[in-house]
Amino acid sequence: MKTLRYPLLIAVTAVVPSAFAEEEKVTFEDHVKPMLENKCFSCHNPDKKKGDLDLTTYAATMIGGGGGQVVDAGNPDGSRLWTTTAKKEEPFMPPEGGALSEKDLNLLVSWINGGLLETKSSIAKKSTKPKIDLAVNVTAGKPEGPAAMPEHVLLEPVLVTPRTTAITAMAASPWAPLLAVGGQRQILLYDTEQGTLAGVLPYEEGFAESLKFSSNGSLLVMGGGRGGKLGHAVVWDVKTGR
Asked: What pTM value is reported for the model?
């Protein structure tokens, strides 16, 4: 049994160093430029700067084109060089010939995420754009029970005219299949699942200019009136219409 210890120890020590091997840095000169040369240089060079964009040098690539910068360090989704070649944003690039391979696209992502290195000795750049969290908490304000729908609300329109008018305000309930539409001296509530009128909220003083449901959908807030004469802010209970 003793003879098995040494081979096992040798095998383990041989694996450990590779686990800590430093990943190769992706740079413009070594990796990105050769790839761009095959796909992009014919249209984006000093003599033919399509879109006022030259990709033949690192400095020119950092400047960008007529629409501004095309790369943003650490932010592939905010880098048009990647979004257009990955077919995420138009105009798709390259416009002619074969699209970039998955390997080339991954290379671009690695370069952007790595800080847009020019060479292996370069210092990684940081994003020039503010980080904005676009995530939405879809449960914020959600009622514990069923979402509010009209239950004891008038169904008779206050005003019916021979001609319709432009819609000046509209709002959708965040939790119920309910749409509020501003009309002439009234707010119409529609059940979007049934496609039927669910209620009418009279507003004889004028016209609705803005509509908004509360976060839990139980209240409808309106701003309106008559231009240059009067203005109101009115809040209705969605269930009762009061």
From this structure: 0.48
